[in-house]
Amino acid sequence: MRILLVNPPNCGRSIPEERYGIDSIKQIFRGEPLALEVLAGNLEGFETAICDLKAAPDSFTADLEDFRPDIVAVTGVTCEANTMLRLARQAKEAGALTVAGGIHASSDPEFFNRAEFDYVVVGLGRQSFRELVETLAAGGRDAPSGVARTSPGRPLSFAPRRFSAADAGGDPPPAYELVRNHRSHYRLERLGLDMGFVVSAYGCPFDCDFCCIKGLTGGRYLTVPVESVVRDIGLLPTPVIRLLDANTFGDPAHAERLCDAITTAGIKKNFLADVRSDTVVRHPELMKKWRDAGLKAVIIGFEEIDDERLAELNKKNRSAVNTEAISVLHDIGITIIGDFIISPDYEEDDFERLGRYIADNRVDLPMITVLTPLPGTRLHQRLRDRIVVDDLDFYTLTNAVLPTKLPEEKFYRLYAELIREGHRNARL
Asked: Which residues of 265-291 are buried (b: 16+ CB within 10 A; e: fewer)?
């Protein structure tokens, strides 16, 4: 049985660009499709290929013709969901069974309950997708837990999966070799970095209203065995490793064991990782230890700069903690990539206050997105009656899908200026 795993092309649309000619907001980074590499690594005994349409946008038709897959599995985030349908339609015309997976399928599986797809993987698919493939290879059609067989016209019915350490896995390693011809594409141009991806944990122990991570693990936080993470780091030729976790330090004890193992193994690479500001404040010694092991930069979701708005997002954090974490990291010497969320309700003084905060606190590289109620989140449940843009192509986190309080063009021009100013003063 031949299985083709597909990463969609960059396909999100931009309201500021299409309506107002503002093209400085769109942000594109081609990273390797780690989720598909993990799936492929766990499909020993089956002939598997990865079609990465972000690196080779025109390769899908040729891959269908040359590889002749029995199963085509397509992953994707929310702004790629419509493109996933189009790819699946083409795959079915070629005679393949089709499977949807990824973050949008996990948060809003009903979206894919259509004729284009035969199955939907809900949550981590490393183990459940393997079980599905084994069933199909044996001539069966029943779906294992965590996988829904589609039933267009009727609601999905499936057994939810209780995710465990087996779903996080560790062995076998990701099939990095399947994308070796594309490795030169996996580069963060703005920083001039060739970057490889490794996973050390899945999920997050927190539950912010805007975040869609919960659907991947059913709300659990699962760590990958330390020895497996160290092995995967060693498999990649890149000088920079992005630990592609929602929260690398969600279990500080696991993070410390991993740091010790990296040091013991004599690994000399730079690392980027995600961390919450309250973790930095509570564990400064852990951050120093990681700096000595090669941690170059951290990505922190500051989100907002006042406590009332943080509470509205169920962030379970305070602005003063964010500011203290910035000071701690500057003292240690770790670069700060700060995620901020601007609300469609922002007025001019809100943009000005955020700009001053970023400059005054010397956030090295601000990454600024627009509050987006992604389907499947509590934020979407709360705000869906206000949504004015339903086309998921625009759910890129850089479009206002809710009405803006300011005139729309003015909102986007202030947003673009905030991005330009932050990047102009970026320190990396």
From this structure: eeeebbbbbbbbbbbbbebbebbbbbb
Phi, psi of 283 (to 5 degrees): -130, 55
pLDDT digits 0-9 by tens, 95-117: 999 999 999 999 999 999 999 99
- Give me 192's structure tokens: 């001039």
Beta-sheet pairing, 71-74 with 97-100: parallel
For residue 427, pLDDT beyond 70: no
Distance, in Å, from the CA atom of 87 to the CA atom of 143, rounded to the nearest integer, reads 22
Q: Is 118 exposed, middle or buried (0-12, 13-18, 19+ CB in 10 A)?
A: buried
- Taking the CA atoms of the chain, what radius of gyration do you get in angstroms? 21
Q: What is the pLDDT of residues 154-200, one digit of tens each?
A: 999 999 999 999 999 999 999 999 999 999 888 776 667 789 999 99
> Which one, of 59, 55, 48, 166, lies nearest residue 99 by Cα?
48
DSSP for residue 104: H
Extents of the domains making up the chain: 2-162, 186-424
| Residue 240 amino acid letter | V
Helices (H), 108-239: 126-137, 165-168, 214-217, 226-235
Q: Per residue in 23-76, pLDDT tens?
A: 888 766 668 999 999 999 999 999 999 999 999 999 999 999 999 999 999 999
Torsion from C-alpha of 141, 147, 152, 153, nearest 10 degrees: 120
Asked if 196 and 242 count as a contact pair (C-beta separation under 8 A), the reply is yes
Tell me which architecture the domain covering 186-424 has in CATH. Answer: Alpha-Beta Barrel (3.20)
- Peptide bond preceding 172: is omega within 30 degrees of 0, i.e. cis? yes
Q: Given this model, what pLDDT does residue 214 score?
A: 87
Token pair listed for 43? 């499909």
Mean of per-residue pLDDT scores for the chain:
95
Are 377 and 406 contacting, i.e. CB atoms less than 8 angstroms apart?
Answer: no
Report which of 98, 70, 97 is spatially closest to residue 2, judged by C-alpha positions: 70
pLDDT tens track for 220-249:
999 999 999 999 999 999 999 999 999 999
Owner of token pair 């599986």: 109
3-state secondary structure of 195: strand
Q: Does the global pTM surpass 0.90?
A: yes
Give SS3 for 154.
coil
Domain 2-162 has CATH 3.30.420.40: no
DSSP assignment of 229-270, as one string? HHHHHHH---SEEEE--S-TTSSHHHHHHHHHHHHHTT---E
